[in-house]
Amino acid sequence: MSRRAVVIGAGAAGMLAAAALSPVVDHVVVLDRDELPDGPEHRTGVPQGRHAHLLMHGGLEAMEKLLPRAGMREALLAAGARQIPLSSGMLALTPAGWFRRWRHHDAYLTITCSRALLDWVVRTAVLRDANVTVHRAQATGLLGSARKVLGVRLAPVADGAFDPGLLAGHGLRLSGDGREGELDADFVVDASGRGTRIVRWLEALGIHDVREENLDSGLVNATRVHRVPEGARNWPLTLIQADPYSGRPGRSGMIVPIENDQWMVSLGGTRGSEPPKDPDAFLAYALDLPSPLVGRLIAEATPLTPVFTSHSTSNSRRYLEKTRLWPDRFVALGDAAATFNPLYGQGISVAALGAQSLAEAVRQTDVGVPGLARRVQREAARYVEAAWSVAVSTDVLYPGVEGGRPTLAHRLTAGYSKRLTTAATGSYRAASAVWDITCMRTGPTRLMRPDALLSALIGPPLPALSGPPLTADERAFLATLTHAHGRGTPSPAR
Q1: Alpha helices, DSSP H, located in 127-183
Q2: How is the chain split among helix, strand and coil, in percent rounded to 5?
């Protein structure tokens, strides 16, 4: 008998879930409300799509395992994405000072590109498998019970008619008036993103004990794409981090090199210090950050887009792995399980690692084996917890945060993180511990290893830098920009 899996959502999380399931079922049906573009173009169903995204080392490794024939790193780079070694290819001003740039072998490679390009490359790789197809439809609920999901309820989108391919090839049963349908499945994945209705769907099945937690720092992202100025083709990833320890609203900025010789420039401000949408005020905000470096760099760069803003930045978690009952044949991955402040850049990696957990589980046993879905949900929650602890322990410190107040545990964690970050400004060993967590190479227990604890205790063996650690070529380029604006050339970092 033919076996079918249904994945709700055709973003990166959904397509990676389809890649996990395609080797073990006859067909994977991916459902999405949007008309998917033929190339790397933005779409309305991705609220953070126009803002900066980083594909961390751990997430890229998971993608490589999920799509071994695609060569995801090479595919992304061939499409125009950039590969950034964090230890040598990043300028980062933290609340404790500038990070140094090291010449060590770099195990902390990060891929930077637009979200549209990332989604397109992933989707293209997954759809090379003939048993994965994407159809336009809106999932409205789950079929089955609290013990087993048997399929999905659907409604058409746009013109009020179902996708003919969905009708013809997959046994979709329509209601009398044709406005609703039911599609049986041997396995269902909810990867529908921030707009998921999973709690309501589970309640309809009889599961009423999903605990939810929300924490919102009020962060607003403002992003504009610029053409890379002549002479800055290899300018490093540049981050001016917000300071959660000051008691004031956080303000941050970053320049992310992306495809087509472009910079994606994102500014972020928590409640009370939101970045503006007006182009002139956008530049002024960047110049007024703790370092004016981002502003100086973009002052002479040609803008290619308007300023786009987004308020979809809250941390929201559904503790699906802790319910008393969990239905077989159903999991939720990516933003359907938890969303994170995108400032920390770990959402896509969490989705990829969750899909990897699904792939490993279904390779070992049948998708319908009782208890398999619960095991996958719990395994995926490990990666959720790692990213959640990073995001929430920082965001809770900002003034005006909604959904929680700093606890003693938060303050202890913040104190330790501040000491370790201070050490990392002058210690490769401490910086490695920070990057291990940031890049999702290891979990939060990495911070409790003896080398990290000792680094935090001793502090930085090298003195603080007086400015950004620029190469001679970078300093010469920046001098031409600062001279044009009547500002002095930054002194060499010491």
Answers
A1: 164-170
A2: 35, 20, 40
Structure tokens at 114: 């637009």
Q: What is the pLDDT of residue 213?
A: 95
Taking the complete model, does pTM exceed 0.90, yes or no? Answer: yes
Q: C-alpha distances in angstroms, 414 versus 28, 389, 397? A: 44, 11, 8
In contact, 390 and 347? CB cutoff 8 Å: no
Q: What is the dihedral of CA 287, 292, 295, 301, to 10 degrees?
A: 150
The answer to whether the beta carbons of residues 80 and 100 sit under 8 Å apart is no
The domain made up of 4-49+117-213+314-389 has a fold known as FAD/NAD(P)-binding domain (3.50.50)
* Residue recorded with tokens 């978690």: 317
Q: For the chain, give every domain's residue range.
A: 4-49+117-213+314-389, 86-104+216-311
Task: State yes or no: pLDDT of 1 exceeds 70.
Answer: no
102-106, 110-114, 460-464: least confidently modelled range: 102-106
Structural contact between residues 266 and 253, judged by C-beta atoms closer than 8 angstroms: yes
User: In sequence order, what E strands does 169-261 have?
Assistant: 173-174, 181-184, 187-190, 212-215, 220-227, 237-240, 251-258
Looking at 3.40.309.10, 3.30.9.90, 3.40.50.12780, 1.20.58.340, the CATH number of the domain 86-104+216-311 comes to 3.30.9.90
Residues 110-151 pLDDT 10s: 999 999 999 999 999 999 988 999 999 999 999 999 999 999
**pLDDT tens per residue, range 394-423:** 999 999 999 989 888 888 888 899 999 999
Residue 457, class by beta-carbon neighbours within 10 Å (0-12 exposed, 13-18 middle, 19+ buried)?
exposed
Q: Can you say whether residue 97 is alpha, beta or left, with left for phi > 0 and alpha for psi between -120 and 50 degrees?
A: left
DSSP state of 5: E
Q: Tell how far CA 313 is from the center of its chain.
A: 11
Tokens of 264: 């994606």
CA distance 45 to 10: 10
Tracing tokens 């987004």 back to the chain, one arrives at 310
From the list 99, 90, 102, 95, the residue with the least C-alpha distance to 467 is 99
